[in-house]
């Protein structure tokens, strides 16, 4: 009898098929990670905006002034809440991490990046004294 070494052709084909099946099931998981990251980024922006809004409103209640100093910068408040032009800077989400356009008169829509503008958060200043600003989240799993 001869001493054979190595794998048969059938064994090699079976291993290749198993690796192909594993790759086909793992690939969609990696694609979903990007979507989850954009959604988490939008949710982080919402939390930052809410925190900045609460901080500015607390400073307004303490000082009674429509211009409050926060971390060495004076911010103008509208009815006790940050202006749409200042909210991104105040929340710390301005810069290259988010797509922050020039704010409109009373609202600003901040998206996670330029390629996914539907994955966004909109901050709208209050129209009168009393109600809090409106923070609308359009970021969902479907559009991020």
Give the averaged pLDDT, no decimals: 87
- Domain count: the total is 1
Provide the spatial order of strands within the biggest beta sheet: 1-2-3
Q: In one word, what is the shape?
A: rod-shaped
From the N-terminal CA to the C-terminal CA, the straight-line distance is 64 Å
- Radius of gyration (CA) equals 25 Å
Q: How would you spell out the order of helices and strands?
A: HEEEHEEE
**For the report, how would you describe the main beta sheet?**
3 strands, antiparallel
Query: Given the helix and strand composition, which structural class is it?
Result: alpha+beta
Which spans of ≥5 residues are poorly predicted at pLDDT below 50?
none
Number of strands: 6
**Residues in β-strands, percent:** 15-25%
Number of helices: 2
Residues in helices, as a percent range = 40-55%
What does this structure look like?
With 144 residues, the protein is α+β, with helices and mostly antiparallel strands. The protein has one domain (10-137). The protein is built from two helices and six strands, in the order H-E-E-E-H-E-E-E. The chain has helices spanning 9-63, 87-91, and strands at 67-70, 73-78, 81-82, 107-111, 120-124, 134-137. The strands form two sheets. Strands 1-2-3 form a three-stranded antiparallel beta sheet, covered by helices on one side. The longest helix is centred in the N-terminal third of the chain and has 55 residues, at 9-63.
């Amino acid at each position: 009898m001869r001493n054979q070494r190595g794998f048969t052709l059938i064994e090699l084909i079976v291993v290749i098929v198993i690796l192909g099946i594993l790759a086909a099931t793992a690939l969609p998981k990696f694609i979903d990670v990007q979507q989850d990251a954009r959604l988490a980024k939008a949710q982080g922006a919402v939390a930052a905006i809410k925190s900045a809004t609460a901080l500015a409103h607390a400073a307004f209640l303490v000082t009674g002034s429509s211009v409050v100093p926060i971390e060495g910068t004076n911010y103008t408040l509208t009815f006790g809440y940050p202006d749409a032009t200042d909210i991104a800077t105040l929340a710390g989400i301005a810069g290259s991490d988010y797509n922050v356009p020039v704010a409109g008169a009373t609202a600003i829509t901040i998206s996670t990046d330029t390629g996914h503008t539907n994955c966004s958060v909109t901050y709208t200043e209050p129209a009168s004294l009393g109600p809090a600003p409106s923070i609308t989240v359009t970021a969902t799993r479907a559009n991020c």
